[in-house]
Structures are given as C-alpha cells and as structure tokens.
## 1
Amino acid sequence: MVEDGPVREVLRRPRAPYTRELLAAIPSAASRGARLAGDRPAATAARGEPASPRRSDDEVVLEASRLTKTYALRGPGQERFTALDDVSFRLHRGEALGIVGESGSGKTTCADIVLALTRPDSGEVRLHGRPWSVLTERERRASRRLVQYVPQDPLSSFDPRWTVGQVLAENIPRQDSRAQRRDLAVAALERVGLTAGHLTRRPRSLSGGQRQRVAIARALIAEPEIIVCDEPLSALDVLIQAQVLDLIADLRAELGTSLLFISHDLGVVHHLADRVLVFKEGRVVERGDVDEVLKAPRHAYTRELLASLPGQALRTT
Ligand SMILES: Nc1ncnc2c1ncn2[C@@H]1O[C@H](COP(=O)(O)OP(=O)(O)OP(=O)(O)O)[C@@H](O)[C@H]1O
Ligand SMILES: [Mg+2]
C-alpha cells in the first residue's frame, strides 16, 4: 500500500508519485493532444508531446453509405429486427472517428460491415472510392491487410492452435526472413507492454488484458491504413491503457492511420477522437466534432449518456 485516505482526499490531492501517475493516465477532454503514460520505461520511444496526427480532411479513405442490416427474429410472424438503420459516414486519412452508444445499438454490427465480415442488406462501404463491401472474398483478399480489427472479444478471433508468435507473424505484410519476423513480433509485443516471453504462449493461457494487447499488436504489425477498434481498452488497467493510447497516437502521426473507435468510455473518446457518431437503436442520432458533441450535446440521448458518466465531477477539477 503506497497511499491511503478518504477517497476525495486521495483522488484530488494524491501524495504518492504512483497515485499521481495513475490519475495522470486517465484520458479525458483535458488530456487531448498530450501523452498519458509519461516517462514509464515500457512506453514507446517517443517522449513529450506526440507529433500531431497526419490528418487530411480531403482524403476520404473509407465511406459508408446508407448501411442497413436486419436479422430474422424467431417465432410467429417472422418479423425482422433492424440492427442498423440507414447509417452513413466518412473516415478521412489520419482521422479518429469515435462511435458511442448504448449496448445493442448496432456498433459492432457497423464495425463488422466495415470489415466486410458481415454483408449489409442495403447500402455500401467503399475503400479509397472503390467497391469494398460488394466484392467477393477472393477479390478482397489482397486489400484485407489494410483494414485491421481489434475485436471486442479477442479470444474468439484467435486460432486456438496458434501461439502468440504465429498470430503476429501471419499479419506481417512483407516476406521477411524468420529472424526478421521474430524481431518484428517482439517489437510489436514490447510496444504494447508484453515481452518476447509471450511469443510461445497460446492466447487461451493469457489474461484478458494480455489478450487484448496481443490483438492490438496483431493489428499494428500489419501497418494498416485503417484500424477498427471495438472496445479495445476495456480489459486494460489505466497505465497500460495510457501506453496503448499513446501508441495509437504515434501510429497516426507516423503512418497516417485512420481509426474507427468504438468505446463506452467517453473520456477515452474525448481524448482520442476528432469526430464522434452517437448510435441509438441502429441509427446515428448525433454526429460532429468531438468537443461540440461531448461538451454541448444537442440530442437528449447524448445528454443522458454524458450525465450518467461517473467521476465527471472529479475529472473536471
Ligand atoms: N447474428 C445476429 N442475429 C440476430 N441478432 C443479432 C445478431 N448480431 C447482432 N444482433 C442484434 O443486433 C443488435 C445490435 O448488436 P451489436 O452487437 O451491433 O450492438 P453493440 O452496439 O455492439 O452493443 P454492445 O455495446 O453491447 O457491444 C442487438 O440487439 C443484437 O442482439
Ligand atoms: Mg458491440
């Protein structure tokens, strides 16, 4: 135990350096554009202010137009349930687009369509202005690497027979030698706070947070143009989360990677996203600049979402 006391006292006026470090790592509106992980040794090489993301508002990398998805409901009448209803958005180069909304509002369905894991009933996703969601899997294969996924439930996306090393090696874009691939895999693990010792482990034997970090490393190693993240930080402690958020910022700066970032944590969204979409019952009920939407929400549902956020009073002090 490094510090104890009444909650307000400890959280508002932390004395132990470690408590200070923990509190400083919490993402929020105030931490936008700043590094969260400070000088922790495991953090990425860069220090101080992250380079600003290489954004280009003219270059649309991905466009979703009027996406709709329904599922058959069992039982009499055979009605269909609408999971996604007329959803459109654009993702620019280097941009981070946040998606927030209640459970069951269609966020993962939307991510799956963007990743071409699910076909929309109507509407279309285009990549660099060219067809994407309408292609056959064979036609898509060459470009698959460009759109990476950090799924909500990483375990189900790993082949249970594979080691972490195999999972990572498979996603390396170039035809490097075995030794080079191993070095790249170790570097990717270190960037997410894991070590070479994890290469021979199987994902099933890792903790939830470690698995999530392997999923993030797998996405990064492919040097993608777009990363679709579905609650990628939910199983991480606040310091590792800070490290991963810094890493994502570096990647955007270095490679101009775009993000579609689904999260229940509005602090994370405010820290990271440029624009945000608010989902409710399969529809986008509000959209816009992250500061505008989260500081001055127009839709009643967005206001409700913000009001229900615990710790808001502490964060703003
Ligand atoms: N394969 C399926 N068959 C039937 N219904 C489905 C299917 N997949 C999703 N749904 C339904 O579609 C709705 C949207 O699901 P989705 O997973 O997109 O929600 P979500 O916004 O990601 O929620 P959460 O925040 O809980 O992850 C839910 O009501 C879900 O039950
Ligand atoms: Mg989901």
Note: Residues 238-255 form the longest helix (18 residues).
## 2
Amino acid sequence: MLDLHSTVKQALDDADSFTAVGVIDCGQSSPLLPLQTSPTEHPRIRRALDTALTPRRVATLEPELRERAQDLIAPLAARGGGDVAATVARWLPVHALVQLLDLPTEDTGHLRDLHDRVLGPGAADPVGVAAAGREIESYFRETVEARRNQSGPDLVRALLTPDDRNLALTDAEVASVCYLLLLAGIDPVAAAIGSAAAHLAVEPHHQSVVRSSKDLRRYVEELLRWSAPVVALPRRCVASTEVGGQTVVTGSSVECRVAAANRDPEVFDEPDAFRTGRRERHLAFGSGPHHCAGAHLARLQIGLVIEELTRALPGFRPDPAHATPDPARIAAGDPVLIVAGG
Ligand code: HEM
C-alpha cells in the first residue's frame, strides 16, 4: 500500500490511465490546451509552451511586474493597512498575464471580469458560463489573428512563430493555450499571495526571509507545500489500473488531492509545521506531464509581493479589528486584512 503522496503522484504521472480531457467545463467549446489533450498529442503542445514560457522570458517581466506590485501596494501603505487580497492578490496575476501576452493594459479589468464569469461566483449559471466562454474565445482568436504577421517578444508571437518551426502552433491552438492561461494563472497565484500575506502577518519573524534571495525562495516553496493553493485535481479513469493498492475502473471520476498529499506524515516530517528548507518534493504544482507550465511566473509573483509588502509595511500584523484568517486555508478572494507594524 502506497502512502498518500505516492498515490496522488502515481495517478498524476499516469496520463494514459487518468485524463483531464472532458473533465472540467469552463465555457470552452474545444479542449483546453495543453491540459485536455491525449498523451500522444500533449508533448508537442507542451514542448512549444515550455520553449516559449522559459525562465528567461519570465525574468524579463520582473521589472514591470515589480512596478505593478508597488502601485498596488502603495494605497495600502498610505492607509497604514488594508485588504491584501482585494488590492494586490486579485490584480497582480491579471497584470502578469497582460504583460506575458502583451495585451492592452486597458483590458485588465475586462479579463478579470471574463475570468470571474467562468470561475467566480457567476460560474453557477451554465448559460452565463457558456456566454463568457464565447467571449473569451473570440477575444483570444482576435488577439492571435492580429499577431500572426507581427514580430515581438511576447508569448503569443513566440508560440506562433518559434525559432524552431517544428514547434509552431496553429492560431486555434494558441488561442486555446491563452484561454487556459487565463483560467490557470490567476486564482492559484491570488490564493498563494493571500496565504503569504496572512502567514507573514501572523508570524512576523518570517518577514526577515527577504534579506536573502535563497531564504525567500525556500520560504515560497514551503508556502506552496503548506498552503497548497490548488487543493485537488480532477481526472477520469480511461484504463482500469491499480493505484495505492486499489483498483480504479474505467469511467471512474478521481480527485487527486494535492493539498492532502502535501501534508502526508509518511513523507513530510511534522507536516503541519511551516519549516523552510525541506528536501521532499511537494505536489502544489502537480506532477507528471501536466506539471504547472507557469511555475516560474507564479514563484516570481509571490516573491515580488513578499518583498514589496515588507518594504512598504515593515513588520505588518493582522488587523486586530477583524478575525485573523488561517493562513493555510486561504482561497483566492478571501480577505486578508493587515496593518502596518507599530
Ligand atoms: C501558485 C500558483 C500556481 C499553482 C499552485 C499552480 C498549480 C498548477 C497545477 C497543480 C497544475 C496541474 C494541473 C493538472 O494536472 O490538472 C497546473 C497546470 C498548469 N498551470 Fe499552473 N499553477 C500556478 C500558477 C500558474 C501560472 C501563473 C500559470 C501561467 C500564467 C499557470 C499555467 C498552467 C498551465 C498552462 C497548466 C497546464 C499544463 C499542462 O497541462 O501541461 N499556472 N498548475
């Protein structure tokens, strides 16, 4: 019998038996690439995305993204505190996407709204989700068409006309990748930023991690394990198989609970303790072929916010006028109220 961590990892690694195709409906009229593809088709799309979304491309976003983070944090600092979730965590990942895809800055609010209509409270209404899906598809279809014959450093153009022509994706494939980035790249980052702010407020001695980039990197990694911004990953079994000592039959729905796997006591010593520098690999970014394609961008944003929050509001604490949220259980959008340190 495997431990929970190994069981979840085994299911995520085995894309031949467990598929994400047809599992989530976020208003898309065709499968979201590269998540909802067969194991034979996935490597082509994923290689194209990885070749375009390199750590180098992500690093080029840093100066402007840092400015955006500073702009978002400045009003909080001026007021001596406020809600980090509503002012910073909600917006920075949308700015990151706008930058990555070189979209018009004035579309930031519209993209946030489209995202919320398919994944936010409005998502309970299937007709509304389908309508928002059509809008997202036409937005990215037009974006991709307009880029086809232009050169430029953004991700859309890199996917359309890569250095290696074998990696070029069609217009429809690039538009689908953009749709998935809008869905995958916002809420988990917002949740992680919210958790970081809440944790650093409740345990302010951790704020010193910003003094060294190595400590900051280790802090972010432990935060991802401990807070697991994505709780579970849904799959459908397409070939009966044995996982963790149990047979899963074709057609079964499966939930790969990464949050629980990240607290597995068989793998992580004192799993509930926040302890930086752990060696064991967490599953916050998934595992196997669909391992998060935006992990570098996610780490960059979380690290940036920690640096800029501690600079603007040194020694910040939870706002005593409000209930202190549990930093390990913060979802995207949950309020995180802080006040400047005294
Ligand atoms: C803290 C932030 C993030 C977390 C915790 C996270 C987590 C994950 C997880 C668990 C998966 C695997 C999904 C599955 O197997 O079903 C995934 C996939 C993915 N993520 Fe992220 N993600 C984050 C941020 C981002 C960002 C910023 C982007 C891009 C803008 C992004 C783009 C993607 C894409 C495209 C996939 C699908 C990869 C594939 O199917 O090959 N993610 N992410």
Note: Residues 12, 20, 34-35, 46, 97, 180-181, 184-185, 188-189, 192, 229-230, 233, 258, 284-286, 290, 292-294, 297-298 surround protoporphyrin IX containing FE (CB under 6 Å).
